[in-house]
Write a structure and sequence with these properties.
heterodimer; A: alpha+beta; six-stranded antiparallel β-sheet; B: alpha+beta; seven-stranded antiparallel β-sheet; 28% strand
Chain lengths: 190, 274
């Protein structure tokens, strides 16, 4: 182990005049995420129109207020899906990809971009409101899952909510697109 | 190439110098972390850890070599810290609502890591019922295992960061930034690290979220002292992340950078005042 301490840090943090601010991090591109999550599979863009009803159901299941965008959805020939979504707060954003197996189970999650909080002391109070009021008697809310990662950072909870939202999307919309009757829900990719 | 996945209740970031050709190595490293998660997660009622908590006082439990290794190190740090580090505090976190309740315990009968006996390298038994939580050590171990996988797959240089449990390997020296415990969105550059590990414990996020302290004092005599209300942030540098992770608790609870425990494990302690 070679450790070279910053001499300024040893004197005291007050000496460091220009603090570094936690910043955005870009991990992988959409193309890279596709390659990582579904190697050797050809994915076709398969955007869907998110109806108000679907949007409402996804919102109530995941507690995420901002709307889901249906334009970043891909499908493989074997019935696998790849959905890219983001969890956005006032000051933070996590863009992530969820891979779904043909049987509907989650195959993998990859974080694409993660913007850490700026001035969250204010923002988080509002963020937290969306978790307040969740009770065990709420059958589709994420209460259980959120408790399950107790002690983790809020961002992690947001992502959990996001994954839940994508799982709901699959259940309510994607699952049925393979049946011919539901094809009207899909629109052509550009 | 740098990738990030949600694992161990946090974001795990793996960074390597190689680009796309290191994808498989990174995947295998994530798998190693997932395996630690599956074996030693408290949240999963079927993990090996949960089985130990349910059965070890009744019968001998066969465990995976990785779990055995973590328990062995946990016992080692327990002894060196005079009990300041003890994984037998799971029930405290359950009682505080920070961990799920799988089993009902009558707290006064519960033992700690000192009650776990090795009958064979992969066979343990407990003298008393235990509610072990490896949360304060397994994350560091997972980081070490991921680094081991990366090195064995020929990756020459990189880092693994599991929400503040970080290890750097290879030629690169990584600048280390720590959140200012008073203003956590600001980072303080504390130095650069090459071929070593650093872990940090602090309560700034717990305080912000008005959560009860997750730093448990295993030696607390009365209930009001169980959840240690520590100020500032507590980092430990060590060769391996498993030691760095475990020792942050010793630093936070003793509030003493010169605790003999650190020399014993060739570690360095670093406190940042709030």
């Amino acid at each position: 182990m070679i450790w070279k301490p910053n001499p300024l840090a040893l004197i005291g943090i007050a000496m460091i005049s220009a603090p570094i601010i936690a910043h955005a991090k870009i991990y992988v591109s959409v193309e890279q995420a596709q390659k990582i999550l579904f190697p050797n599979k050809t994915l076709t863009k398969n955007p869907i129109i998110i109806t108000d009803d679907l949007q409402d159901k996804m919102r109530s299941a995941s507690s995420i207020r901002h709307p889901f965008q249906g334009d970043r959805i891909w499908k493989a020939a074997d019935g696998s899906w790849l959905v890219i979504d983001e969890v956005v707060g006032k000051h933070e954003m996590i863009t992530y990809a969820v891979a779904i197996n043909p049987n509907g189970s989650i195959a993998g999650i990859e974080v694409l971009e993660y913007v850490e909080s700026y001035g969250y002391e204010v923002a988080e109070a509002q963020w937290r409101k969306q978790f307040v009021g969740k009770t065990a008697s709420d059958p589709i809310k994420l209460n259980q899952d959120i408790q399950n990662i107790g002690g983790a950072t809020l961002s992690c909870k947001h992502l959990t909510d996001g994954v839940k939202r994508v799982a709901v999307l699959y259940e309510l919309a994607l699952k049925n697109t393979s049946s011919p009757g539901a094809q009207t829900q899909t629109i052509k990719a550009k | 190439m740098i990738r990030c996945k949600p694992l161990l209740g946090t974001f795990v970031e793996i960074s390597i110098r190689e680009n796309e050709d290191g994808l498989e190595a990174i995947e295998n490293a994530f798998n190693a972390i997932q395996k630690v998660h599956d074996l030693m997660g408290f949240h999963n009622p079927e993990s090996e850890l949960s089985l130990i908590n349910q059965l070890a006082h009744k019968e001998a439990v066969e465990i995976h070599p990785w779990t055995a290794q973590v328990i062995k190190i946990a016992k080692e740090v327990y002894l060196a810290s005079d009990g300041l580090f003890n994984c037998g505090i799971g029930h405290r976190l359950v009682a505080a609502g920070l961990l799920p309740r799988h089993i009902t315990f009558t707290n006064h009968e519960l033992g700690g890591i000192e009650d776990i006996q090795f009958l064979a390298p992969d066979l343990i038994k407990s003298d008393r019922p235990v509610c072990l939580d490896l949360g304060g050590i397994a994350k560091g171990f997972a980081v070490d295992m991921a680094v081991r996988v990366l090195i064995s797959e020929g990756i020459t240089s990189g880092s693994v960061n599991a929400g503040g449990d970080l290890r750097v390997f290879g030629k690169t020296a990584l600048p280390i930034q720590i959140r200012d415990p008073g203003l956590p969105e600001k980072l303080i550059e504390i130095g650069s690290l090459k071929d070593g590990a650093i872990a940090t414990s602090s309560l700034y996020f717990a305080k912000r979220d008005q959560q009860i302290s997750h730093i448990i004092n295993p030696l607390a005599q009365n209930l009001s002292e169980v959840h240690a209300e520590v100020l500032g942030s507590f980092s430990v540098l060590a060769k391996e992340c498993v030691y760095a992770d475990a020792l942050t608790k010793v630093l936070a609870l003793s509030n003493n950078e010169h605790h003999p425990c650190f020399t014993r494990f060739s570690a360095q302690a670093l406190r940042i005042a709030a």
